[in-house]
Structures are given as C-alpha cells and as structure tokens.
Predict the structure.
Amino acid sequence: MPAPKRFSKFREVQAEIEKNGSALFVDKEGVESLIVHSPYSIHYIHSYAEDSPFFLGLAEGRLRGSRCTNPECAFVYATPRSHCMVCGEATAWMDLPKEGRIHSWTTCHFGSEAFLKETPYNLAMVEFEGAGSLLLVRLKDCVESEIFIGMPVEARFDPNPKFSITDVWFVPKAAGSPAKSRRG
Ligand SMILES: [Zn+2]
C-alpha cells in the first residue's frame, strides 16, 4: 500500500480518503494525523415525544414556540419547551413570527456529513418580536460578508420535510417585501 499523501486542508483530506482510503492531515503546528476511511451506519429510532408538534408544524410551514401558561409570567420561548424555565409552569404551543432578526451568527467551516455539501455554511441565532429566547438555525442565500447583527431575516420551509430541524432555515428578508402575517 502506498504511503498516504499529506494535506493541510481538511477538505482535501476528505476528498483523498474517499478516493484512496487514507491520508495524512498536517496541522498548523506540523503535527501529522493519519486519517482513515471507516464507514458505519446506524438506524436510530427516535421519538420527539412532547416536542412532536414543533416538527409536525415545520412540515406545515409553521414555526412554533412555547408560551408559559402562567399569566403573571407568560414568558415566550422560540423553541419547544414543555415547562417554563422562569416559573416552572407548563407551556402551550404558539406560532412564532416567520421573520426575525439576527442576534448573532457564525460561519461553520466544518460540519457533519449532512452539511458537507453546503460547507462553509452560516448558523444564526434568530430573535423574534415578543419572544424571550432565540432559535438556532441555518442562514442561507447570503455570504459571510453580507451578514450583520440586527439583519432582518425570514423563514423558509423545506417543501419535502424530513421532520428535522433542517426543515426550516432563514434567508435575508427581501428589501421592500410586505410584512407577513404573524400568525399561521
Ligand atoms: Zn413562566
């Protein structure tokens, strides 16, 4: 077997191991790591349990948050949450606005297998009017240099839903686009 070739970029390592099964990754300090191709497969049966309405909602183009049912608290979460973190009371489902603003964001230069084809990709914490917590989602249709904190964004839903958080992503809100309904 020929000696593995050396690479300093992990994407080149990925291409090499797909082709030849092994490669040497050399990091910035010159440390060499032998990387080998080692496929495995898992079929995991997962229950979303009480989070299920969130994922069923995505498939219908709805973004659901949770609101504390204690009227003196009424904290709104931009994620599924069965009980309030502030007061402990049960929450009820509610529809979040389909648009919000970038609270913070990052560009990912590494990703799990599902995201390799779109790497580098952008992840954003989105804030919604009336909600007290944030939603972590992918941000598409824009490049790193165009993103800024406070940027208006709007939701897009996968027309072929897979009942996964990847069924929703956000894009920059089109300039001059009419305000969408906040409900449903
Ligand atoms: Zn509460």
About this structure: Confidence is low (pLDDT under 50) at residues 179-184.
